[in-house]
Amino acid sequence: MIKLPFLENVDLEPIWSEGIDNKLAMKHHLLFANLNQGTSAIVQNKHLPMALNYLSKLDIEPPIVEIDEGSFERLYQKFQEIQTGSDFENVDTSSDDVIEVESDLLDFIRNSQDLLSNEESAPVVKLVNSLFFQAIKKGASDIHIETLEKKGEVRLRVNGALKKHLDIDKNITALVISRIKVISNLDISEKRIPQDGRTQVSISGNSLDIRVSVLPTYHGERVVMRLLMTSESIPTLKTLGFTDDITKDLNRLLTHPHGMILVTGPTGSGKSTTLHACLQHIATPDKNIITVEDPVEYNAENVNQIQVNSKVGLTFAAGLRSILRQDPDIIMVGEIRDAETADISLRSALTGHLMLSTLHTNDSTSAISRLIDMGIEDFLLTSTLLGVLAQRLTRKLCEDCKKPIALAPTILTELSLPYGTYFKATGCTECDFTGYKGRQAVGELFIMNDHVKEMMKDGFNDHQIRIEMKKLGMRTIADKLRDMLIDGETSYEEAVRIGIMED
Q1: Distance (Å, whole) CA 295 – CA 211
Q2: Which of 32, 173, 357, 417 could form a Cys-Cys staple with 15, CB 3.0–4.6 A?
Q3: For residue 155, what are the CA distances in angstroms to 104, 124, 145, 164, 203?
Q4: Between residues 464 and 110, which one has the greater pLDDT?
């Protein structure tokens, strides 16, 4: 009985030897890795006879090392990566590595025997590549892969709403999740704790950053992948869809040398996109622009971006303090989450920097009370806050299949709408049977002018200020939604979902 050296919990680097049929070696569970400055043959107890038998047929005699099952699996995955080309660099829409049509993908998955053969990982790679490709094609922002009791399910978030994409065999789901972990540099043997990672994919000429979050659930792991866009895909202020009056006023606010501009709205309302569009609008070679974000969602070329990392103490507040020593002209803070960040942000806006940030409030005027709740003094607010843009993303009806509908008189009265023709979502092949195609930003811009400062001095609360601003002609999100309804751009259901009733 031979006693082999044994290593546990190791993360070895593979050696893809030239003179060996590596694929055949993998089939015999024999791997090669860099150990003690040389090539070692790596085996595991489970398949020891098979591996040693194959090694004896080769013309080499490297030192043999046995490792535990988890470590072997990790190294095996790295070999599969090399074998199938992990970078997706060569993945083209015409390539064999992508299944373009959804029906073909379903046929491919039904032939699950092919996918479940452990000897070859290419089918799983092909499946994962196709998920990315189809997500890009459908304009999805997130891919959800869930392990349910008897099967796995893939859903895509398109235009802000989740839609089922396909069902997968439960065993295949585990292989797909392992593949995603490998390309995101996550630990494939760890299935008990949440993990976060990133990866970059290049498919049909599109370079794509992907943020990966893996979470253990009762029936197995679930993965959510957020598809992040590169600088070329940052929209301009014009293409965001805001009305001309908002775009004009926002452009005017962005010319201020110092002060603070806030963008507010719930999660997924496009706040980060608007901020980046603002930065691109004002970025010139003579300006030093620094951002602190969590996470960095757009990779912008002409902007210095800092990623928040709470594990090492790099919070928004700590990042902001460091930024101020970097002689910035314009600062963007991803989100004002606490009193400390709010205080430093407003004080830096007071001392000559243009500061852009986001806040979680439902409308523009609520930003005042939110900041005051955080302990910000009135004088700081009135002297630094330039304006607040509240926004939402509204799904637009598909022009190919929208149908006219008569709204009930009670609804028309309640929403102050005129009698006329309105439209509802139906669904066709053009809009992937959702009834909606594309989204448009709707917003309200609250500008901190002298009249508002006077009202604040007189002790008006944000609700009273809002009523007063509406009397003076400020158009709210609900007003913009009414316009979209009257113009037949969106449905009553969508307008209610976005907040036409909240005004």
Answers
A1: 9
A2: 32
A3: 17, 18, 7, 4, 20
A4: 464
